[in-house]
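Section 3.1: Structural characterization of target chains.
Under the original work plan, the team committed to producing a structural model for every single-chain target entering the pipeline before any wet-lab resources were allocated. The record below documents one such target. The sequence was received from the expression subgroup and is listed exactly as submitted; it comprises 460 residues.
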Amino acid sequence: MPILENSLRNLTKLFAKAYWSAKVFKQKKSKYIAVSGKVVGHEELSNMIDASLDMWLTTGRFNDAFEEKLAKYFGLRFALTTNSGSSANLLAISALTSPLLKERALQAGDEVITVAAGFPTTINPIIQNNLIPVFVDVELGSNNIDVDQVAEAISEKTKAIFVAHTLGNVYDLEKLQILAKKHNLWLIEDNCDAFGSRYLNQLTGTFGDIATLSFYPAHHITMGEGGALLTDNPLLKKIIMSFRDWGRDCWCPPGKDNTCNNRFGFQVGKLPEGYDHKYIYSHIGYNLKITDWQAACALAQLDKVDEFIEARKRNFQTLFNGLINCQEYLILAKAIDGADPSWFGFPITVKDNAPFTKVELTKFLEQNNIGTRQLFAGNILRQPAYLNKEFKLRIRNTKVKSNLELEDSDYELLPNSDKVMNSCFWIGTWPGLQEQDLDQMIETIKKFIDGYKYSRDGKN
């Protein structure tokens, strides 16, 4: 059997090399310049075939290897995989509600500071856990949280800060850490778009109590669907694992029994003494694990991540240099001092004085085969989902109210979030972009602006 397995692995490598070489060539010939995508090769396919030969069908040896290697990459003690970055966010917030955290556990009605100009699944877990989101505004250009507004938004009910590094751009972690420590707040980094970003030469995802990652195909590395959580805290690791794995108290890996050597020696809750520890549940949890095929793919991707990060940085700089003379009408992205972003995308904000709108520019780009994306939900409080289901919130330092009670004056407290919604979009920086793609993106934007130099209708 070992001879047959080795033959299959060798044939897989030969097939993958031939197949993916042809596929990459076809991708280069495509007219449409995608805003994101995956870069995969024979290594990923070989690992996935190898995992298939085990027929294990859930997390196994590849997942163990990936979690260990991912934790080592970030210089942290623990990495735990899950089935998406969104699930990672849900697990991060849910973990902080655990009674095992005693007086630091988040209770219903406690507050979590975040931004309105973000991705839904950064905000949803706050609402889903019966907590109160406290929204502060973002800064234009960086599109990140306005840290100066955080201090004024903190109340006696505030227990955590949960915010993403927007498109890989780094927010002021030093100031947020100081605030979190001063007020004894949990700090969660949504690092889903920022794998490889650094602040003061330290990787983002290592500053907070918990960080989250996404491995969707658009992200820095991929396993298809998938995500992970990072922490240095053994208790948080135990809690996260419990919420991820049905809420169970047992920490045995799948297919393993009696890791604690005390499987029938527990008496907790109102269970009878000796009840099997594998079926004791300490949290109301989920099943959010991945398969070993996913981990096998990501393990190969992790070997390439530094190359991907450098490509994203180069592509961003090429776009920035090419569009630097367009700043009469466009706000280009900027990083704060001490930050070295691993850019997920290239954000562009149309200025108020521009003779064109964001909609007109993005339509023109799409008509010319250049992919664009909105900056996620814009001002999420204006999205239909958040207008139809009632929940409590605060905006900056105002009083708690229902989202259904919001008035125009409330939205006016988040002017930059509205500006992001109305005027900001982004184009790609992913490693699959070629030099000619970047040149085409730059020249198309310049062509559009030149057509609007003197009048709104594009006539000179």
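The chain has a mean pLDDT of 93.
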